[in-house]
Amino acid sequence: MTKIAWVKNPDGTLGLTWNPWTGCTKVSEGCKHCYAEALTLRYKWGPAFTARDHKVVLHPERLTIPLRVRKPTTFFVCSMSDLFHEEVPMDYIHVLCQVMDATPQHTYQILTKRPERARAILEQVRVWPLPNVWLGVSVEKQKWAARRISPLRAIPVNNRFVSCEPLLGPVDFRLYQDLEVIDWVIVGGESGPKHRPMKMAWLEDIVGQCREAGVPVFVKQDSGLYPGRQGRIPRELWIQEMPGFE
Questions:
Q1: Going from the N-terminus, what domains does the chain have, and what CATH number goes with each?
Q2: Could you tell me the pTM of the whole model?
């Protein structure tokens, strides 16, 4: 069972993470204090681990894990990496998509900072689009909203979502009518000893935009030392909505 609050099963219980590969490289400000990198460096996971060279490590034995789970479950895919990282071979992604296709009882949440590569790859996947897959992009500030939501628009998918976590600046989805194609928004501040503060005005504005557009919003946490705490967030903004399951 994962501790990620927005990875929820249809019955409301917490789902699972599925990591057929681990490791990543940083591409934007949101990656600076990456929790996945911190855990990898701490526990030295993966045979290719070195303190200076945090690369992708493939775990082929994990590719079939969802096939062995009968109960309808929500899987957050590649929580310790990026599914569309440049070091992940195309054939691995094809196999992963085949597993998701073979398990329609499950829901798969995929979050990427590489939507351009995602689009290029998924155009070549025979079984795509898959009705049980939610595809999202990370948007930590306005600059990345403009760069990442546009390619997400072009990918056929049943549920598109945006994760504004860690939220490092204001995000105005109205500039390009982004909420017309977005089914869910996650918002959260950065946690840990080196966290960067999230302004309440940024959070309040995003919640207001979602309310106006009728888009579910999930407020995960305030910025601070410990994750998952309400902190400074006022009760009226402490909203944890999920999109509907098909």
A1: 16-237 (3.20.20)
A2: 0.92
Q: Note the pLDDT tens digit of each residue in 179-199.
A: 999 999 999 999 888 899 999
CA–CA separation, 239 vs 224, rounded Å?
A: 18
Under a CB-based contact definition with an 8 Å cutoff, are residues 179 and 215 in contact?
A: yes
Nearest C-alpha neighbor of 164 from the set 202, 115, 119, 197: 202
Q: Which 3 state secondary structure label does DSSP give 94?
A: helix
Secondary structure letter of residue 156 according to DSSP: -
Compute CA distances 143 → 164, 168, 172, 189, whole Å: 12, 11, 10, 17
Whether the Cβ atoms of residue 112 and residue 81 lie closer than 8 Å to each other: no
Question: Which of 18, 37, 16, 15 has its CA nearest to residue 26?
Answer: 37
Give the tokens for residue 112.
């990427």
Answer left, alpha or beta for residue 53, where phi above 0 means left and psi between -120 and 50 means alpha: beta
